[in-house]
Amino acid sequence: MDTAHSILRSARHFFAGTFLSRVSGMARDIAMAFCFGSSPEIAAFMVSYRLANLFRRLLGEGNLQAGFVPQFESFKAESRERAVRFYREVSFSLGIVLLCLIAVLEGILWGCLYWAGSSDCVELAMWMVPGLFFICLSALNSSLLQCEKKYFLPAASPVAFNFVWIIAALLVWHLPKAEAVRWLSIAMTGAFGAQWVATATAGKRWLGQNRGKVSLFSEDWKKLLKPLSLGIIGIGAVQFNSALDAIFARIADAEGPAFLWYAIRIEQLPLALFGIALSGALLPPLARAIKSEDLNLYRQLLHSSLRQSAALMLVCTFGILALGGVGINLLYGHGDFSASDVQSTLYCLWAYGLGLVPSVFVLLLAAGFYAQKSYRKPTFSALFSVAVHIGLNALFVFAFNLGAVSIALSTSLSAILNVLLLTQGLKQKVGEIFTSDFWSFFFRMALCCAVPAALVYEINSIWNHGEFPRLFSLQAVQCAVLSFIYIFGVLMLAWRLKLDEFSALFRRKRAERSDFVQ
Questions:
Q1: In angstroms, what CA-CA distances link 59 with 94, 145, 436?
Q2: Which of 37, 279, 340, 397 gets the most CB atoms within 10 Å of its CB?
């Protein structure tokens, strides 16, 4: 039976896999910072990576999962054979679409390169595009495994991707930077392929030896087109906006894209570990609750997930504000990454951190719509938020001259707007989302985090005197001591204020017994 605690249990499995993935991703970013610093060549690579991955976001990951999971759960409720057939039809049909799309994209990029004469970003993107075939099919395999309550491997599969990336970076870093980033771009397709192999092997075990006839572009495939098309519009706008972010950052500062890259990698760590884990574990149970017409269970699962995510993200948000500087210095403050680079990255991280809580709420509220096979409202909310985000980018960059931090700040503000729009839309369908009890818990949890965060910030200011030490041992000691003070302070205040919702996140055995009793 799906309960709030069963979702937490699934989220823990998701968390474990995502933790390995993010640790490997952090190791990848540390290797990139050490080998290439914030040079203009690596900034061009990062812009190209965003451009090449636009269609990865459109046809894979969250968008594909949002359309595939509710349909798959509906077919599985009828029979396993029907669900397997649906997966295989989607897999083969999507593969053909991806091959055609890659050919078109390569042609467009070649034309841009021909008419522009020379463009590092376009050339690097051409080397990365073929990897879209593997990464989008990997997203489909991950969605299948999540429907079968297999959350660890889908979350951990990017470890293979990051491993190939790290090896490639270490092999080419001694080369001239322009040549190094070209070889690094070529290695991206191999990295995507490694991630696909990891998910395809596990998916094949679940499918068994089913070798029946596959109908390409069948009626079941067409049922997936509506959510995909609406998702493409919304996510396409978001990803187009992401590409514009890199351009705005490049205009504001030649090294701006690098600062944003390193900052958002840290900000996305808690977002992926907790937010994406909860939303990924939440969508299949919500879809099953809608299928069984149990609206009370649907509301209960959504409300509990929002409270749990708020507790975790508030800890991370205030942690970013208090510990961001020592964390960035420990991870990146070596080699070619200077103290001024640490400071510039910190400002971007602070601005991104303000949007951490609303970003998780967007994921969970959107899952509430997707479970009902309702895609229009999330799409239009995303479009409106993107339009506001672009306007804020222009205002902060050109009018206020805030530099690269402009993009991070406008990202957080647009996430808050997106939450307001989704909340209003979902309220009309299922009733009040954020109740007075929720806000009471929210502000008490914020107090538990704010007090130790302020204390840690003051200790850090006295300890460092505004400087970032370059000695690794001192960096590690500072990060460990200050992190302990902050976490201990949060736990003690949560205990004193009797925030049972927060402590319940860690009471695994008792929660599972409670599920059984229910």
A1: 9, 18, 38
A2: 279
